[in-house]
């Protein structure tokens, strides 16, 4: 664990230790692999599926020669019954820096909307929807500095947004009743296509930074340095040997002549994807390139489709008559031939049932597991020594490693910023409030202004008010301020001074974002100014004001002072709702 590296900051270099992470509901390790590639060390990956764990082990535990840090423990366990303290005993530590994971998403799939299952009694009873609680249980025990939970987009709208609200609310107040700090939480949607994955795939991330730590996780994911955004499907699969439906080999040599010819014809994107992402040179053999067989009728229907066309479009635009026996109006999109020059449709676990939505652009068959794995950005050395059906399921369920890598880099930068903020912050943004009274004083005149009046407020006055919010509400994230959800809450028990000076600053608040309702207009105006450039990045994500407020209340005591802000009231007690106020806690 003592390993580390040093990074340049101005003229100085700071030492950054290799951060550790846990991957819960790890599947075969798509997320794990991406995080490791960004320089993080996996202390344990856990999943209930023996096939998933065996695959993860074969690739990420036993493969030391690839120069990646191996996963220390790959555990086949049911997370409903395997307790965090048991894990701590097994891995020999009760602390990790990061927890990531994708609690199963089938319960929220947008496809299920069609049968009405994303609402109502059946929805609430689906036990898979509550597995996020197991994730939070581990977060509460290990108190990582950052957690990242991944889920399908259906998670946002499920039960009218109830689940998104619940997860964010429960994470924000996690352990607060027992004196732990909880998490500064925000949600963001990640777009795999922009991160270099040749696929339309958007997923919901929920990210938490432990609320006693200064600094914000800035929610823009950048592609991993090796990746090129918007890589088309052709770059991933174009050079693979041709196979016919029902044919192929589980292990064979690459067709190097075909590859050379292909590379001569294609641009840089193709060779970058092949060598940097798929790392074909590191794979000794081509594996899992076996196509499933299809009925003669399906093959005739496939042949009726042009590249990039769905059966619906073929029927509408070209009057094509298909033989498939399903109701033509409700199964219009039943068949899709993918296009080499566009992103592929989302690779899903359903590929294990049939491949009709994933017909090869130029060959008359559906994708092989190797093609699906490549489209998910798994390198070619990552093998699936299991049945084709199971391989499709693991591949479709996985976080694309390139997305995991982008998340890993973002987490690394957030942790570096936290470390810098904790040790070396300048506190040079002015003016910052010196105490809570002053913060409230600067805020009050703006509270009741309508949007048009807020627009006219001078920059200096507005900034003072915006910094005051960060000073008072260190546990909130600016990015949550545009995504409040619908529910309001009033459950504030304490009646400390802030409540007495201006009760509306304490309640009601939005249950999902944690933001006091009265501040919503102001936050919207801050966003407008940020997007127009009037508020700079450092001013919008004002960690100086946040840190200053935390020091004032004595939160994160290990943080050293180097700036000029007044000491404030070290005995300051919590004046906010349990939603908004981080508690003091050992610094990570
Ligand atoms: C969406 S997949 C996660 C994929 C993974 N993040 C990846 O990148 O490969 C969800 C996983 O949760 C696992 N799972 C479901 N219920 C579980 C439980 N009770 N305990 C542990 N794992 C569980 C499933 O086996 C499945 O592999």
Per-chain topology:
Elements: E1 4-9, E2 12-17, E3 20-24, H1 30-37, E4 41-47, H2 50-60, E5 74-76, H3 84-91, E6 98-101, H4 120-125, H5 132-142, E7 146-152, H6 154-172, E8 183-191, E9 202-210, H7 233-237, E10 248-252, H8 256-265, H9 268-277, E11 286-290, H10 296-303, H11 311-318, H12 369-375, H13 388-397, H14 401-424, H15 436-447, H16 451-456, H17 459-472, E12 488-489, H18 497-501, E13 509-510, H19 520-532, H20 537-540, H21 543-552
Parallel strand pairs: 3-4, 3-6, 4-5, 6-7
Antiparallel strand pairs: 1-2, 7-9, 8-9, 10-11, 12-13
The structure holds S-adenosylmethionine.
S-adenosylmethionine (SAM) is lined by residues 25-31, 47-49, 52, 78-80, 102, 104-105, 131, 397-399.
Report on the architecture of this protein.
The protein has three domains: 4-227 and 400-417, 3-Layer(aba) Sandwich (Rossmann fold), CATH 3.40.50; 233-397, DNA Methylase, subunit A, domain 2 (DNA Methylase, Chain A, domain 2); 425-552, no CATH class. Helix 1 packs across helix 14 (401-424) and helix 17 (459-472) crosses helix 21 (543-552). The chain is globular. Strand 4, helix 2 (50-60) and strand 5 form a beta-alpha-beta unit. It has helices spanning 30-37, 50-60, 84-91, 120-125, 132-142, 154-172, 233-237, 256-265, 268-277, 296-303, 311-318, 369-375, 388-397, 401-424, 436-447, 451-456, 459-472, 497-501, 520-532, 537-540, 543-552; strands at residues 4-9, 12-17, 20-24, 41-47, 74-76, 98-101, 146-152, 183-191, 202-210, 248-252, 286-290, 488-489, 509-510. 36% of the residues lie in helices and 12% in strands. The protein is an alpha/beta fold and 588 residues long. Residues 111-118 and 558-575 have low confidence and may be disordered. The strands form four sheets. A seven-stranded mixed beta sheet has the order 5-4-3-6-7-9-8, sandwiched between helices. A two-stranded antiparallel ribbon has the order 1-2. The protein is built from 21 helices and 13 strands. S-adenosylmethionine binds next to helix 1.
């Amino acid at each position: 664990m003592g390993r580390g590296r040093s990074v340049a900051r101005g003229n100085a270099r700071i030492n950054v230790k290799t951060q550790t992470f846990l991957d819960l509901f790890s599947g075969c390790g798509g997320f794990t692999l991406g995080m490791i590639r960004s320089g993080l060390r996996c202390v344990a990956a856990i999943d209930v599926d023996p096939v998933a764990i065996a695959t993860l082990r074969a690739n990420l535990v036993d493969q030391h020669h690839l120069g990646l840090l191996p996963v220390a423990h790959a555990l086949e366990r049911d997370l409903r019954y395997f307790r965090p303290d048991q894990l701590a005993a097994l891995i020999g530590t009760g602390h990790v820096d990061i927890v990531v994971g994708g609690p199963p998403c089938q319960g929220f799939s947008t496809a299920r909307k069609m049968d009405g299952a994303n609402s109502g009694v059946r929805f609430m009873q689906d036990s898979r929807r509550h597995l996020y609680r197991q994730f939070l249980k581990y977060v509460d025990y290990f108190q990582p500095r950052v957690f990242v939970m991944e889920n399908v987009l259906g998670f946002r709208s499920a039960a009218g947004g109830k689940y998104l609200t619940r997860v964010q609310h429960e994470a924000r107040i996690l352990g607060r009743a027992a004196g732990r700090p909880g998490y500064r939480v925000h949600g963001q949607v990640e777009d795999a296509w922009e991160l270099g994955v040749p696929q339309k795939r958007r997923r919901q991330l929920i990210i938490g930074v432990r609320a006693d730590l200064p600094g914000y996780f800035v929610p823009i994911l950048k592609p991993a340095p090796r990746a090129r955004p918007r890589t088309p499907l052709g770059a991933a699969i174009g050079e693979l040997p041709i196979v016919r439906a029902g044919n192929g080999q589980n292990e064979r040599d690459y067709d190097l002549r075909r590859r050379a010819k292909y590379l001569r014809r294609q641009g840089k994107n193709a060779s970058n994807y092949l060598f940097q992402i798929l790392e074909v040179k590191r794979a000794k053999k081509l594996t899992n390139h076996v196509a499933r067989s299809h009925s003669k009728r399906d093959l005739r229907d496939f042949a009726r489709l042009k590249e990039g066309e769905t059966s619906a479009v073929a029927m509408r635009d070209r009057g094509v008559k298909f033989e498939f026996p399903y109701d033509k109006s409700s199964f219009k999109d039943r068949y899709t031939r993918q296009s080499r020059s566009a992103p592929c449709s989302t690779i899903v676990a359903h590929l294990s049932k049939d491949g009709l939505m994933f017909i090869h652009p130029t060959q008359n068959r559906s994708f092989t597991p190797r093609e699906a794995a490549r489209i998910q950005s798994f390198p070619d050395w990552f093998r699936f020594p299991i049945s084709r059906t199971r391989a499709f399921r693991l591949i479709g369920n996985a976080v694309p490693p390139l997305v995991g890598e982008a998340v890993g880099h973002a987490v690394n930068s957030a942790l570096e910023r936290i470390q810098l903020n904790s040790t070396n912050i300048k506190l040079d943004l002015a003016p910052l409030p010196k105490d809570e009274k002053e913060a409230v004083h600067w805020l009050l005149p703006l509270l009741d202004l309508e949007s048009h009046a807020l627009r006219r407020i001078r920059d200096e006055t507005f900034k003072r008010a915006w910094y005051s919010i960060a000073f008072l509400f260190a546990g909130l994230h600016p990015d949550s301020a545009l995504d409040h959800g619908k529910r309001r809450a009033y459950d504030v028990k304490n009646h400390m001074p802030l409540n007495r000076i201006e009760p509306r600053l304490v309640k009601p608040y939005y249950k999902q974002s944690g933001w006091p309702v009265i501040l919503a207009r102001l936050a919207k105006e801050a966003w407008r100014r940020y997007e127009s450039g009037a508020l700079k990045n450092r001013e919008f994500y004002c960690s100086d004001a946040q840190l200053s407020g935390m020091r004032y209340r004595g939160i994160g005591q290990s943080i050293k002072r180097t700036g000029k802000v007044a000491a404030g009231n070290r005995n300051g007690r919590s004046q906010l709702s349990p939603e908004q106020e981080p508690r003091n806690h050992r610094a990570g």
